[in-house]
Amino acid sequence: MARVTKAVKVRGEPTIDTQRLRAGSDVPGGRRKQRVSMADVARLAGVSSQTVSRVANGQPGVVESTREQVLTAMRELGYRPNSAARSLRYGRFNTIGVILFGLSSTGNSRTVEAIATHAAAEGYAITLIPVGMPTQDNVLGAFTRMGELAVDGVIVIIEVHLLDATAVALPPGVHVVVVDSDAGDRYPVVDTDQADGARQAVQHLLELGHRTVWHLAGPAESFAAERRAGAWRAVLEEAGRPVPPVERGDWSADSGYRAGLRLAGMPDCTAVFAANDQMALGVLRALHECGRRVPQDVSVVGFDDIADAGSYLPPLTTVHQDFAEVGRRCVRSLLDQIHDGPAAPGTDLVPTTLIVRGSTAPARP
Amino acid sequence: MARVTKAVKVRGEPTIDTQRLRAGSDVPGGRRKQRVSMADVARLAGVSSQTVSRVANGQPGVVESTREQVLTAMRELGYRPNSAARSLRYGRFNTIGVILFGLSSTGNSRTVEAIATHAAAEGYAITLIPVGMPTQDNVLGAFTRMGELAVDGVIVIIEVHLLDATAVALPPGVHVVVVDSDAGDRYPVVDTDQADGARQAVQHLLELGHRTVWHLAGPAESFAAERRAGAWRAVLEEAGRPVPPVERGDWSADSGYRAGLRLAGMPDCTAVFAANDQMALGVLRALHECGRRVPQDVSVVGFDDIADAGSYLPPLTTVHQDFAEVGRRCVRSLLDQIHDGPAAPGTDLVPTTLIVRGSTAPARP
DNA sequence: CCCATCGATGTTTACGTTAACAATTTCGGT
DNA sequence: ACCGAAATTGTTAACGTAAACATCGATGGG
Fold first, then answer.
1. pTM of the predicted model, to two decimals?
2. Are B27 and B38 in contact (CB under 8 A)?
């Protein structure tokens, strides 16, 4: 209905052939000629389809005048290669699948962005395979679906307890790289060096003279959260400091706020390491509302270094994660696999940096 | 360098069979048998490949015992359908392309997430086509690439001045939906009702008794920014209030901070409407540092209602955008086009809601 | 002047799947 | 027991592309 009507006028005799008889010319539900194929171009240019193929792929051995004819015909018909046929022919899709839980977390979206960018640079498209809830069934479903999907390899960005059960469902021939997991004994893993980041954060606070450091951890199901909490505990124990009970949030600023209210009630809590920046933001708010000044009374460190962290009140000291690098290495590792065959499992750690801003200060004597 | 070495030991004999004899079993550069095909399954099950096809697609007319045999053979060989062949056969890819500038903005990633979710629910995968910089060349390149891509339709999430020039390059047969643009006269557009959101924000501030409202706009190239700024100006003019000069930022908290410092220097500035939450965050920080209290001295309103907005100091009054709904409508509109043919151009506006929190208060007399 | 050689182009075939049609088997009714 | 209909299974062809091989004509050396 919305077919612009001027089109009708424009299509006189000459274009009839270009449009040919496709749109709706046959049975309603029937398949119409999908679009212009090499054969169509070949016919118009008066050559064989193989010659068209050669021109399309820039292969040598086509004389200039012929090439010109073919190119003209292509333009006239609006020819575009059919990638399905190409994929079928080559046995490759030039596509990478990304299985993820959601894009809502900063880390995920930044990583995916980097993956998309680097994949594009290598001539690969990326296909997103979202998993509604990270239940086993869903993840398993995603893998199954992916098995039928047009992808040469997969990058998995999910907390991966679930991978245990689903490992069996992973189609054997598919190349995989996993992000943020402990699956390093089964798959190639790329991850931020969570432990080292946490270590830097806690040591920074201890060096400022704080007696010990409270920790607001992420959800227990998260490997990243566990790794950060583990490092926090290790540093305290090595330094012979008391290990306060762990607070837990769900990564959200709100959960950070609730935990912050609890922490604010403890007079001897002078240093908090939050497992991400958003929870740190919640902590800042809670402390502020309880009249405890940051950093004079309490120092706070976050994790991630999201774009806004420098604009919090006060600007947040935090651990910088290089998501772009994670994405880059994922793509490279996966492409290496695709080209050179399966890679050995193992973990590739991207270093972190502590960014010191205004939310940390020396402990008061 | 961080590659853990234990990995090497893990890969032993047992996996040999799943690997089968493909990798490198023939000429080095030659194409190896891509993977198990229907013919392989058919051979093992002792039936024709058509029967395998019927079983794979759950079609009726296959006797139980045969079906069982085929399924067994499938399992044994690890058969997975080849979607390239399927696409070639059907002339459809069951894939939606999403052309975007980046995932870094909250809006984009939330929208993309919703698109991915709803597309998946309809059996469509989504392919991300990132555009490095939104220059004409790049966008044009993305369209060209997309023309060769295995997609049935495209959702464009880019500021679309550029579409003008590239419209011509848009492959004619491709279905398109555009987000956040004024291309409503050429394509179906889905967008948040930017103008109404801005109107609500400004009216809220005026109703609180503020004489006028300053505006911190987004970059001039952004249609969303222009629409918000336009509505801000319109409300002020309708109400007969003075229209202060527009401040401009680049959506970042940092740019908001810089603008905030300027605004803080104007004693008669008591109400600020920032074009997004991140810039509002920067403004909050600037005002705080300059000793102007929010909301007692200055009221601030943002736009987007990002997850953290409720945890700012003070919690931010802002305009809620329903990105999920935008994504949903994009997918529905595009799928309608794919199934029922081209849709009329026009703009589909998703309503917004003002969320009143702690950053706004009545003007002091 | 003839034939080997090379360059340009055409023809055949296969990639994996499935619609359409053909062939075979099974079964119920007489 | 036999016929026809229905159920089940098999065969053929086509989707668009590109590698491999085949053909044709021209060029140049003997």
1. 0.85
2. no
